[in-house]
Specification:
Layout (H helix, E strand, L loop, with lengths): L11 E7 L3 E8 L5 E6 L2 E3 L2 H7 L13 E4 L2 E5 L1 H7 L9 H19 L5 E10 L7 H12 L10 E11 L2 H11 L7 E7 L4 E7 L2 E2 L3 E3 L3 H11 L5 H11 L18 H30 L8 E5 L1 H5 L1 H7 L5 E3 L19 H20 L10 H7 L7
Parallel strand pairs: 1-7, 7-8, 9-13, 13-14
Antiparallel strand pairs: 1-2, 2-3, 4-6, 5-6, 9-10, 10-11, 10-12
């Protein structure tokens, strides 16, 4: 792993997971307790004059719902504001790092507003990207450092000093905590890390503590949602996902009542949806299990499989069947504190929570030890075998 720059002990320690369904994060203000947040995934370019008008009265709304940021002449609405006012979609096709800059800045404004911070402060970041996009972390770091120095927001310009930066592949937080809990045994095992999110599915293999680069496919929950939309009519992904997840492997009419009003043919429509959801789940599971079988090592070689991500719980039955003899460690054994579950995200917070614990330990250790000078970083071997973190400032 890389080490943190100790030019200043950060006032804000922030960990972010850029999920396809929303940006999840853990923030800790110096001297305070960790707090979770969630911001919708949409991002859209909008003129400053329109943004200023739409957010002229901030007193009646949560900052998560009124977020926008400006870098030079580039202004973007983020989250609920982008979706509700400007009809932005989650935009699952662009690589995550392309929008991560704006999502990170928006999260920082939300934090600054909620915790009443000054306009200038030091911040340390730990970010999660899909394994297939992990190399993009090298592109994201200078973009973030430059933008953080001054960016516009619905209140005032913010000047944040980036004093620490780490980037991990998705499931990296869970793996880091698993290594800490497992100890020396990690050097003797072959472990598969399977992360199933909303947009992507990814696999990383740890062979005796040495991680490969990992593989990523567009086989997250959105694949199943698309199948349901293709088999029905007039439904949107945001409307469907709530019912699909709540239904699990036993969809019932009550899970989909919210999709229709008092239509006389409502029961017939819902019966159709349930039928399509059932068939789509089968098709989606076949595609995902086929891909996992292709990219995973031989089951006789695997000592354990760590399965994590929000979609993992939905497909638990199928995943159990895929690994009848290989031990499965669900969500790496990470338990998210109830105090962080205000958004009811549950296990979807496991990866970012675990990474925040790891990152926070490093930040506190740097403070106690006196830190590392500008430009120093951890060795390559440590980055490869211990947890796949991008080096920091």
């Amino acid at each position: 792993m890389g080490r943190l720059n100790n030019l200043a002990y950060p006032e804000v320690t922030l960990t972010i997971d850029f999920g396809g369904s929303g940006t999840k994060g853990i923030v800790q203000i110096r001297g305070g307790k960790p707090t979770a947040f969630w911001i919708e995934a949409a991002v859209i370019e909008v003129p400053y004059t329109s943004l200023a008008f739409q957010t002229r009265n901030l007193g009646n709304a949560y900052p998560e719902n009124t977020a926008w940021v400006g870098i030079g002449e580039d202004y973007r609405a983020v989250g609920y504001l982008a979706r509700s006012i400007y009809s932005a979609t989650p935009r699952l096709k662009p690589r995550k790092y392309e929008l991560a800059l704006y999502k990170t800045l928006a999260a920082i404004w939300v934090i600054k507003h909620k915790f009443k911070l000054s306009d200038c402060f030091d911040i340390s970041l730990a970010l999660l990207l899909p394994p297939g996009e992990f190399e993009d972390s090298a592109l994201l770091k200078p973009m973030l450092k430059e933008a953080l120095a001054e960016f516009d927001t619905p209140t005032k310009k913010i000047n944040a000093n980036l004093v620490g930066y780490e980037c991990f592949p998705e499931s990296g937080g869970i793996y880091a905590m698993y290594c800490k809990n497992t100890g020396e045994a990690i050097r003797r095992k072959v472990i598969a890390l399977v992360m199933l999110g909303y947009r992507n599915a990814s696999v990383i293999i740890s062979r005796r503590g040495i991680l490969n680069r990992g593989k990523t496919a567009r086989l997250g929950m959105t694949k199943m949602v698309d199948l349901v939309i293709e088999g029905t009519s007039g439904l949107e992904a945001e409307e469907l996902i709530e019912g699909i997840v709540a239904a699990g492997n036993e969809p019932k009419p009550q899970h989909f009542y919210h999709l229709y009003g008092s239509s006389n043919i409502k029961d017939t429509q819902i019966e159709k949806i349930i039928s399509v959801v059932n068939s789509s789940r089968v098709e989606y599971a076949i595609a995902l299990m086929s891909w996992l079988t292709e990219v995973l090592p031989n089951k006789n070689e695997l000592d354990e499989v760590i399965i994590c991500g929000g979609t993992a719980d939905y497909l638990r039955e199928e995943l159990d069947a895929l690994f009848p003899t290989t031990p499965i460690v669900w969500h790496g054994g990470v338990e998210v504190p109830q105090t962080l579950n205000e958004q009811w995200l549950g296990n979807r917070l496991a990866d970012v929570w675990a990474l925040s614990v790891y990152h926070g330990i490093k930040v506190r250790a740097i403070r106690r030890s006196g830190g590392v000078g500008e430009g120093e970083s951890g060795g390559q071997e440590e980055g490869r075998s211990g947890g796949a973190g991008e080096r920091v400032i």
